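Render Cell division protein FtsQ in 3D.
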Amino acid sequence: MRQISAKHNRFKRSRPERGERQPVSREWGRIFNRLLLVAVTMGFVYGVERLSSQLESIPVDRVVFAGDFRHVSREVLIDRVTSHLAVGYIGLDLEGIQSELEQEPWVYRAIVERVWPRELKITIVEETPIAVWGNGGLLNHRGKIFLPTKPLSEGANLPLLSGPEGGAIEIMRQYRLMSQLLGDENLILQRLRMNDRGAWTATLNGGTVLVLGRQEPLEKLRRFMWVYKQQLAANFDQVKKVDTRYINGLAVSWHELEGS
């Protein structure tokens, strides 16, 4: 019984010896997993770099322009874009191309986008002038002044606005309000000017000049409209100038009649 017990005891003591080797196996497993992770990561990075270099070498095969080209020259736009194409399809600086194109006076907005696999698409939105500004400039719907390389044709029939630097937005606003008032009586505002002192002068179709002064030009225009409907409409083609700067009325200058 003692021998059996001793053997049994020796057997029990041997079990921890086998267990002592298990942490070594786990450590090798961890090392292997780490090496495997490093290898996979390096392979992934290498693959990405190789793919990136291949993509960067893809050229731009086609440049497509879209939009209504009435004043913008395609040839001029192509010249501006060409210098940006050498970097390839992936390396294109879309914002840089957009900024380059929008330097053209008649380009209001340029929308630049890649089209897979090798196409560059550019959509051009031209400026829409609402008035001639000063000497040769044009005014767009946002009150921005731009200077075209060529003057508009005479058939454009745009009003002429002028005023001090920085006053374009206010002059455009007043023009719209005045045009609405005059339009009720089929009168057309052809010119509107604000001088450096802030005084307003309007010229209507037919050449009649309205002197509106500095203070409350819209109120003075309303007063003129009331007098126009009551007394001036029938013979308005003979009216040369109307001065509205008086507190309780206005002064009318007439064209001289032939033979008088």
